[in-house]
Amino acid sequence: MAKNRFPSLDKGVIKGIALVCLADGIVGISYGSLATGLGFELWVPLMLSLLVLAGASEFLFIGIVASGGSPFAAAAAGLLVNARHLPFGMAVKEVIERSHSKLLGCHIMNDESVVFGISQPTLAKKRAAYWLCGLGIAACWPLGVLIGGTIGSFIPDINAIGLDAVFPTILLALIVGSLKTRRTSISACSGTLIALASVPLVPIGMPVLFSLLGLLIRKREK
């Protein structure tokens, strides 16, 4: 029964999930170091990483509070950034529909787990990929924050060694193989340009939603 619910995923999918979880953990090191470097006690970013589990919102929160803003304003900004979770939730509704684990399933919903989940060919594999990625990030992100917050006092600017570039680099490496076809390349490039154009106009975290408009261009391309 368990085997039917969680069938074996392709090795490439598992490898991709492992790399993304590793990248998230490394970014967590950067976040934890930044938070403690700005004067926050380690428990603040650590609790945010466990309870919020949304990197963009957490970076935004500590940035606003550190600059003198209200924690309530920072929380409101974080909610706005996470507005993209509304369409995400609709996309993975079937994946997290089981009542006994629905709350946890919603908590581990993020860009990466949603992408890996909805990209699988069957519902059973969608669930397997979603939960594997979501739980992996739920473990790696707080661990990275703990490590970063601990060593932050020894490395004043952890971004100086390039940790902030690791995550986008790994994501790029994962998708390069899919850019070989003309239609996919047109869609990806169009979405990228749309997202970049929207950066100065919308809150942090929202440009990724606008990048989905590139799919419309792909559909029209013959």
Please supply descriptive tags for the structure shown above.
68% helix, transmembrane helix, 13 helices, single chain, mainly alpha, transmembrane, 222 residues, transport
What this model shows, in words?
The chain has about 220 residues and is mainly α. About 70% of the residues lie in helices and about 0% in strands. The protein has 13 helices and no strands. Helix 2 (about 10-35) packs parallel to helix 9, helix 8 packs antiparallel against helix 9 (about 125-150) and helix 11 (about 180-200) packs antiparallel against helix 13 (about 215-220). The longest helix has 29 residues, at about 125-150. Mean pLDDT is about 80; it is low at about 1-5. Keywords: Cell membrane, Membrane, Transmembrane, Transmembrane helix, Transport. This is AzlC family ABC transporter permease. Its main location: membrane.
Q: Beta-strand level of the residues, as a percent range?
A: under 5%
CA distance, first residue to last residue: 43 Å
Query: Spans of 5+ residues with little confidence (pLDDT < 50)?
Result: 1-5
> Helix segment count?
13
Query: Using DSSP, what is the number of strands?
Result: 0
Structural class: mainly alpha
SSE order in H/E notation? Answer: HHHHHHHHHHHHH
Q: Which percent range fits the helix content? A: 55-70%
Question: From the alpha-carbon coordinates, what is the Rg to the nearest angstrom?
Answer: 18 Å
- Average pLDDT level: 79
Main β sheet profile: none
The backbone outline, from C-alpha atoms, is: globular
In short:
Keywords: Cell membrane, Membrane, Transmembrane, Transmembrane helix, Transport. The chain is mainly α.
